[in-house]
Amino acid sequence: MIQEKTVKYKSYKASERTATIFSYLTLIIMALIWLYPILWIVLNAFRTEYNNQGDLIGVVVSHYFPKQLGLENFVNLFTKTQFLTWFFNTLFVSSISFVLATMFSLSVAYVMSKLRFKLRKKILNIAIILGLFPGFMSMIAIYYILKALGLTQTLFALILVYSAGAGLGFYVAKGFFDIIPNSLIESARLDGATNSKIFTQIVLPISKPIIIYTALLSFTGPWMDFIFARVILGETNTRLHTVAVGLYYMIYGQRVDSNVFTMFAAGCLLVAVPIVSLFLMMQKYYIEGVTAGAVKG
Amino acid sequence: MNKNTQETKHPSFINRLFQSLSQSLKKGFSRLGKSFQRFYDRFRDGSTGTKVSHLVMGFGNLTRKQYAKGILYLGLQIIFIFFMVSSPVVNSTPFGWKSLGNMITLGTEAGDLFNPTDNSMLMLLFGVVTVGIIAVFIIVYLSNIKSSYATDLRLRKGKEPTTFKEDIASLFDSRFHVLMLTPAMIGVLIFTVLPTIFMILIAFTNFDSDHIPGQHLIDWVGFANFAAVFSGTGEIAVRFVPVLTWTLTWAFFATFTNYIAGILLALLINRKQIKFKKMWRTIFILTIALPQFISLLAMRNLLSLYGPINSALVNMGILEAPIEFLGLATSATTARITILVINLWVGIPYTMLMTSGILMNVPADLYEAAQIDGATRRQAFFNITVPYILFVTAPYLITSFIGNITSFNIIFLLTGGDPVVPGYKAGQTDLLVTWLYSLTIEESDVSIGSVIAIFTFILTATATLISYRRSKSYKEEDAFQ
Q1: CB within 8 A of B461, min separation 6: which ones?
Q2: CATH number of domain containing A155
Q3: Which of B248, B107, B204 lies closest to B448, judged by CA?
Q4: Which residues on B lie below 8 Å from A223 (Cβ)?
Q5: A279 and A164 in one domain?
Q6: CATH H-level, domain B230-475: superfamily
Q7: Which residue, B427, B421, B462, is CA-closest to B442?
Q8: pLDDT tens, residue order, chain A (297 aa)
Q9: CB of B283 within 8 Å of any CB in chain A?
Q10: pLDDT grade, residue B191 (50/70/90)?
Q11: Do A144 and B125 touch (CB under 8 A)?
């Protein structure tokens, strides 16, 4: 009987081991699949292959690994396109709009979470319904508004568009503030602190995760959006493109040039490196935000 | 079984909807009545200053030596009246009272060589803005009366009127919410509410590729655009049902494939025996961090006719010749399946991240209790871990379904809606939102686009409201407090 048990135990262990090996295999295969397109962009950025005439081949080619590596794509990117201008445009827009957007969204979130006033529940409901109207559905309307204000064709318009609606994106942050115990706030009140003091000196210092989460999303937003930037700033004025718009037009614009794909990849790499590193550095806060947002529902 | 419960719930839900609708209507009317009553009461009971404030704003405050406040109110009234009467002209279109008339006619002057045509859309926009300004003014007007009346009450109780300093200080304390909400609300009003109302109104006009504002006059057409989308055999109506069907199919499969696969991946990484958990997670987070226009355009090119995936498949003997997977695919099914597969690549990491967080939070006492009851690990997994995850992530399923209905990037960047249906503007992979984008931005059929926008909005709003009102966080908002 004892023998039987050990046999069972052994087979259990063996099956455990196969399961582990199988798990590792699955993970490795999946990781390869997930890295495959990303690595491809990186490789293309450095791909410098030439045809018989000695011209750079920039098209999509069927072999995954380049036969020759070099920096010519980057050189072309800086000398033949306005990539640097696009990059600084985007940096400018995102640096300003992330400050504004973070302020808007956090202040609304805090008010909705911790203060009680007459129209609170109404505003909350309206905000949720308004948030459902996808922004770009009213893009044409926004375009007209900006035009009436004489603001289209300026980066300022883009800043307004990215930050003005941020007040509606308070939901995740509200979930965070909800968890801060009311007793903390009440005891501060008893000590005579005003509401503004409580917010700036008690709540904000312990809200680092949600501040970083909100700031991260609003900073990276302009680097990823090309719908609004495209409609508001138009196609013709290339000096006003953001990186997303500029790079998109490089390969899918009116003047399509299929021979610039490797240059496009070089541009993508230069955008991706700072954004991805920012994300990875702030990973912890991002994960916290995503989990909180999802579970709150 | 699920179906049954849904069927039985359905009528009662509609009943409840109507009940709550009629209730809120009743409430609204009684509230309106009450506020008129209050308005009258304040006029009757107020001091002379308050009475005059009904006509000259800030007068009550001025007689109480609340100069700053009084001048502010008076100034606002003067500015408002000046704005309404003078009807300032911007881009040769007037604001003010003239814009109210323009809003109804949408312009009457067809242009000639020397005069530009009335810009109907600017007229409509300015009309909406003016109505908004009037609404804001009414709120300010009522607050002027309220403020004067509040001072009356203070005096009657033998207190001093509040000073301007005190009023400002209250913004940082008892009325802190006003200070905090105002900037955000102004932003939302101008860039969300105003455009939304404007867009809804456009749905009732004939703003399309044949009627360009500034070149042609645009008219109100009632429900003609709605009829063109929802009935008949017109170009739009014929494609509407297929696009809607594909949108819902896409949202369903995209949501569930990502959900299940993401949870499985999270469970896999979370296995005790797996080392370097953080590294595995980071690999998948890379996808989230990478801007979508980069990753999706990379995918599109990877899968192109001369791309590496085609050549690899041909070399392995899986394909005989390279095929088009996406936009130019010969069959819609190929393109659709490819999109769904790519969407797995995009979406699994999100679900994985979320589930990983939840897995760490499964209450440990549940496992302890199970262990005491002699449950095996397998039993604990299927009876505790799985139900817990499903329970906690249920709301996420609904939000992600709604998110998928309006997911724009993936379709736009991968196929742009193609493969095309010959003769029609909506392609085989077009979702409602990408269709509406190409209608409004590329084809300038803005009014039809607006109808589709309204429909999409109603679709998502209904789903959200139902799920939101049922969700715990709404019912038990104060659970933590």
Answers
A1: A129, A132
A2: 1.10.3720.10
A3: B204
A4: 291
A5: yes
A6: MetI-like (1.10.3720.10)
A7: B427
A8: 455 555 555 566 778 888 888 889 999 999 999 999 999 999 999 988 888 877 778 778 878 888 888 888 899 889 888 899 999 999 999 999 999 999 999 999 999 988 888 888 888 888 877 877 766 667 778 887 887 777 878 889 899 888 988 888 888 888 888 888 888 888 998 988 898 999 999 999 988 888 999 999 899 988 988 788 888 887 778 888 899 988 888 887 666 667 788 899 999 999 999 999 998 888 888 887 777 665 544
A9: yes
A10: confident
A11: yes
Return the SS3 of A47: strand
Residues A262 and A55 sit within 8 Å (Cβ to Cβ):
no
* Residue that terminates a domain, selected from A51, A71, A91: A71
Domain tally, chain A: 2
ipTM: 0.87
Query: For residue B438, which of A24, A64, A19, A227 has the smallest C-alpha distance?
Result: A227
Half-sphere exposure of B348 toward its Cβ, with a 13 Å CA cutoff?
Answer: 25
For residue A56, the surrounding DSSP H or E stretch is strand A56-57
Rounded-to-integer distance, Cα B306 and Cα A63, Å: 9
Q: B441 and chain A: CB distance < 8 Å anywhere? A: yes
User: Do the Cβ atoms of B258 and B348 come closer than 8 Å?
Assistant: yes
Q: Are residues A86 and A47 in the same domain?
A: no
Contact B184 A110 (CB under 8 A): no
Which residues in chain B have Cβ-Cβ distances shorter than 8 Å to A267?
none
**Which tens digits make up the pLDDT trace of B444-456?**
888 888 899 889 8
Phi, psi of B246 (to 5 degrees): -65, -40
Are residue A134 and residue A176 in the same domain, yes or no?
yes
**With an 8 Å Cβ cutoff, is A64 touching chain B?**
yes
Q: Is B162 on the interface with A (CB under 8 A)?
A: no
Mean pLDDT on B102-120: 77
- Between residues B477 and B34, the one the model is more confident about: B34
Interfacial B residues in 183-202 facing A (CB < 8 Å): 183-185, 187-188, 190-196, 198-199, 202
Q: State pTM to two decimals.
A: 0.84
Q: Express each pLDDT in B214-227 by its tens digit.
A: 778 888 888 988 98
Kindly tell me the sign of the dihedral angle through the C-alpha atoms of A30, B419, B461, B132.
positive
In chain B, what are the domain boundaries?
Answer: 24-222, 230-475
Residue type, B387: P
- Give whole-number Cα distances, A85 to A49, A73, A88, in Å: 27, 17, 5
The closest of B177, B82, B80, B197 to B136, measured between CA atoms, is B80
